[in-house]
Specification:
alpha/beta; Hect, E3 ligase catalytic domain; Hect, E3 ligase catalytic fold; four-stranded mixed sheet; two-stranded antiparallel ribbon
């Protein structure tokens, strides 16, 4: 990859989003985990709503299944002797996130980064965010707007009128006015990658490998001021805005802010 970037050759394969963050030394977040392992993400998320977590009889370990052989891995030193309770739940969740996203592949990641930085010095990447790095390595996608709109699904209040709903019409008008880079960033925001399948949006896949079409879902503006994404479903939750200008402002901010590593909510 480093040689390809050095020679200005595009890499056809898109990596998962958090790998670009690793390359830049950016922290990973739970939204990254949702894209990689939705089931595990949901199981951890549920722990935050349990009144007494100690009743779950958890400790600071996790189970690894390698070719059918199960082994216990400590998330922190002495983890088998540390019971998870409400007071240390945040530390437990953080330890689970770090292990699932980094710890279990640390040797492979170190080798990848060593090889990459042998060709491209690490300081040269500091001017990019992780979305820009993907676009730099893989190039801007060729986006067919007619194909995108044709293979988009609608849910919630948008289900009946679909693209004819006033808010959906505003959305597509705003996206049509985006330049190619901003369209690619919107794709990254909603699907986790700027890549478009060779056969078009009709075969867009979720992180489980199944076809999950680009979906626009309605949400109450009082519950959610900004568009939010669910990359595992290729879904954007689009609030019921009162004007096209408001939609444009909030969508631009949501798509732009995700590249900084901060959550506008």
């Amino acid at each position: 990859m480093g040689k390809a970037l050095f020679d200005r050759q595009l890499v056809a394969g898109h990596m998962v989003q958090h790998l670009y963050k690793h390359m830049l030394g950016w922290p990973v977040t739970f939204s990254d985990l949702e894209h990689v392992d939705e089931e595990y993400y949901n199981s951890l998320k549920q722990l935050k709503y349990i009144e007494d977590v100690s009743m779950m009889c958890l400790d600071f370990t996790t189970m690894e299944d390698t070719m059918g052989a199960k082994t216990t891995v400590e998330l922190v030193k002495g983890g088998e002797d540390i019971e998870v309770d409400n007071s240390n739940l945040p530390e437990y969740l953080e330890a689970c996130l770090k292990y699932r996203m980094m710890g279990r592949v640390k040797p492979q990641m170190n080798e990848l980064l060593m090889g990459f930085f042998d060709v491209i010095p690490e300081p040269l990447l500091t001017i990019f965010d992780f979305q820009e790095l993907e676009l730099l390595m893989c190039g801007l996608p060729v986006i067919d707007m007619d194909d995108w709109k044709e293979h988009t699904e609608y849910s919630g209040e948008y289900d009946r009128e679909m693209e004819n709903h006033e808010v959906c019409r505003w959305f597509w008008e705003v996206v049509e006015d985006f330049d190619q880079e901003m369209k690619a960033r919107l794709l990254q925001f909603v699907t986790g990658t700027s890549g478009v399948p060779a056969r078009g949006f009709g075969v867009l896949q979720g992180n489980d490998g199944n076809v999950r079409k680009f979906t626009i879902h309605s949400v109450d503006k009082q519950m959610c001021m900004y568009p939010r994404s669910h990359t595992c479903f290729n879904r954007i939750d689009l609030p019921l805005y009162d004007s096209k200008d408001e939609l444009s402002e909030k969508l631009n901010l949501a798509v732009t802010m995700v590249a900084t590593g901060f959550d506008i909510e």
